[in-house]
């Protein structure tokens, strides 16, 4: 045999090993072997790296898939799936392995998957809490200690909170994800859980400024979040029915506002939205937290279409670059749709890029370089998810030169909605609305 023949045989063996992914629970060693095997078999389509380590020292693996897997490419949005942040909620962990299997085996063969990966950089983290998973010795449909990390902390109560001071000590797993979010330009995300069957969306926490007195905590992009949640539930085999897991709890159309379901402090999806400029929803995939392995194949059939359709939503809305008079990118320029300012303004990345998820319609996009006059552009946004590219709208500031580009620090990790709460408790509701609008306007400017 020639050297080339040996290489070909090895690659075939790797591909066969990857293709042999079966429906069972993959523990740490098996999960690592599988991810490394995928990367070895598809080196130009994937990038495997660890974003950090758990308390017990296990790697937090992320497999990146796309035409340019190793680095961000201008115009190509970043998407992520994270599973198993509660170690005893296990279905998502296996669904993401099977999603990887589907993506790599379909690339170049299935036109939809091929276009999706050519135009999207997809990050997949099968487990955020490997210690909790390994600590769950006896699978159970309900609560076990494996929910928490090795330090006994609930990772979905461990992030900075936009509404109140979170006293929880930041865990290594949480810090790794926060750093990951900071270092990438994530646009859309979902975190996969178990124990219910519903798509839940931000805000998980709230106050009177966001409508908590009416039992609903509304974000400025509530319409987009409802659409995102419905995209998943309507493409799921049964989530859209909204029957929940018992007769006591129903979710119309299979979706819920997080706060309406139950109030949650320090959640990951709110953190993504406020500080990461990334729209994230929480997907509850199974009534049983840790179901028998022989049910995994059915779970995959139930979720497969929804997992793909949800990724496509990263191409909603509008994207573009903000540049100076010499065509150089302007980082930290504020770019937001008029009428929906964020409490922590959305800013361009180092390449001067912005991505705004918006439903089809007419919007005024406001680009602001601090110290200069804002630039407004009216855009008609179509549904471009099928074309795998959001509408492109660039901004050029002729009066801004490279020497005076804005370099603003990121938003502080303090409860950004606290001031709005203080104002609301001191004034009548009608005046409070005025205070809220004024505050948001000041933040926006």
UniProtKB/TrEMBL annotation:
Ranges for domain Peptidase M14 come to 24-314
Give the active-site positions: 284 (proton donor/acceptor)
**Signal peptide segment:** 1-20
What is the recorded name of this protein? CBPM Carboxypeptidase
Tell me yes or no: is RNA-binding among this UniProt entry's keywords: no
Q: Which UniProt keywords apply?
A: Carboxypeptidase, Glycoprotein, Hydrolase, Protease, Signal
Q: Name one GO biological process term.
A: peptide metabolic process
Query: Known PANTHER family for this protein?
Result: CARBOXYPEPTIDASE M (PTHR11532:SF84), PROTEASE M14 CARBOXYPEPTIDASE (PTHR11532)
GO MF, one annotated term = metallocarboxypeptidase activity
* Cellular compartments per GO CC: extracellular space
Entry's family note: Belongs to the peptidase M14 family.
């Amino acid at each position: 045999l020639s050297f080339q023949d040996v290489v070909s045989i090895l690659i075939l063996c790797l591909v066969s090993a990857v293709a042999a992914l079966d429906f069972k629970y993959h523990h740490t060693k098996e999960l690592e072997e599988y991810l490394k095997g995928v990367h070895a078999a598809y080196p130009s389509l994937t990038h495997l790296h660890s974003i950090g380590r758990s308390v017990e020292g296990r790697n937090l693996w992320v497999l990146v898939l796309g035409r340019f897997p190793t680095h961000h490419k201008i115009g190509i949005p970043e998407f992520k799936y994270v599973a198993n942040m509660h170690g005893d909620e296990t279905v998502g962990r296996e669904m993401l392995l099977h999603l990887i299997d589907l993506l790599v085996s379909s690339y170049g063969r299935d036109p939809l998957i091929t276009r999706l990966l050519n135009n999207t950089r997809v990050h997949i983290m099968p487990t955020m809490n490997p210690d909790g998973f390994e600590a769950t010795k006896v699978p159970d449909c309900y609560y076990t200690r494996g929910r928490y990390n090795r330090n006994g902390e609930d990772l979905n109560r461990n992030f900075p909170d936009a509404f109140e001071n979170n006293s929880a000590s930041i865990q290594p797993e949480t810090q790794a994800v926060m750093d990951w979010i900071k270092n990438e330009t994530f646009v859309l995300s979902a975190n996969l859980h178990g124990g219910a069957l519903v798509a839940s969306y931000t805000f998980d926490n709230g106050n009177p400024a966001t409508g908590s007195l009416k039992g609903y905590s509304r974000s400025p992009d509530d319409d987009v979040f409802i659409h995102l949640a419905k995209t998943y539930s309507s493409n799921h085999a049964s989530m859209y029915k909204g029957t929940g897991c018992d007769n006591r709890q129903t979710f119309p159309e299979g979706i819920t506002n997080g706060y309406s379901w139950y109030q949650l402090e320090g959640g990951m999806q709110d953190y993504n939205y406020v500080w990461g400029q990334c729209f994230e929803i929480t997907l509850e995939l199974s009534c049983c937290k840790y179901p028998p392995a022989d049910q995994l194949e059915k779970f995959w059939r139930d979720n497969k279409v929804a997992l793909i359709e949800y990724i496509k939503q990263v191409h909603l809305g509008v994207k573009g670059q903000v540049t100076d008079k010499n065509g150089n990118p302007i980082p930290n320029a504020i770019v937001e749709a008029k009428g929906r300012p964020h409490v922590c303004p959305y800013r361009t990345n180092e390449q001067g890029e912005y991505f705004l998820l918006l439903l089809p319609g007419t919007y005024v996009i406001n680009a602001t370089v601090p110290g200069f006059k804002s630039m407004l552009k009216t855009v008609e946004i179509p549904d471009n998810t099928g074309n795998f590219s959001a509408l492109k709208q660039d901004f050029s500031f002729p009066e801004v030169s490279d020497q005076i580009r804005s370099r603003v620090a990121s938003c502080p990790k303090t409860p950004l909605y606290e001031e709005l709460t203080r104002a609301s408790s001191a004034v009548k509701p009608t005046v409070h609305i005025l205070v809220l609008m004024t505050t948001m306007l000041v933040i926006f400017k």
